[in-house]
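Example 3.2
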Amino acid sequence: MAKIIGNIRPEDDYTHELGPEANFNESVYFNFFDRQQSRGGFVRIGNRANEGYAEVTVIVWNPDGSAYFNYAKPDISDNDSWNAGGLTIDVQNPGERVRTLYTGEPLFMSNPLDMKDPGKAFKANPRRPIKLDLIHTAVGPLYGHVGKAGDGNEFARSHSEQHMSVAGTLTLADEEPIRFSGWGLRDHSWGPRFWQATPSYRWITGNFGDDLGMVITTNGDGVGRGLFQQGSELIRMKSAVLTTEYLNDSRYHSRLTADIVMQDGAQRKLTGRVMGYIPLRNRRSGANTYVGEGMTEYTLDDGRVGYGLSEYLDQPNS
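Structure, written as tokens:
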């Protein structure tokens, strides 16, 4: 059993009793990156049973920057499991091992920037069958917190994360399965959620091997903090200041630098190069929340290279 940090329990890996809030959401998210193939992506499913549907997102970036992408809102009536829209999450050993399985026909986009106009993108790009079958195994502690009802948190009242190794297969159309091996981060949250409840954030996640991972979370101005996963320990950052380069006159991030100060005063630097990017959005009550997702290659100050995801969320007025 992996080490646990915080007031969560291994059984919190499973779904929870459906809350009374109309916007109760229980979501799981897994990103995964194979450095040998320069291929990666993520799957996410958020159960919104009180609203009668789940949010299902799947993306796989190819080495040439093209991508398979799908977003769906299949009907659900309970919060008993994560199984909708072709995506199934199977907790095989809580706190330690999870299987993700997706079978479907996502869009194939030669240029994922097409998704800046979702309506046009879904009409202009073909659908192609894929199958993703991955086992995520803990390489670091399971950490997080369980919040209390009525605390006013409308985004991630209860939340856990964990760095994982990833192994399995990716099958594209009728081709032979591609062996997939790498690392990633998993995320689980439950409680009321409006994507519009947080002004803006930058969420930087990456893995450099079994022994080293990192998470940095900042506000929209790039000021925040984070941690390094070093084996079974979490080493906290005192501060992290993020500087971002964007593609010309857009909100699409292409490069980043994080100047990090550790709790003991040591200074570290992280640089990132976005290898594949897709602009997404969440629409509710006429408001569009923009979420930019980037498959990112990271370099630490000591020259060590890793891979992960950089996610930038902004509200329309930000």
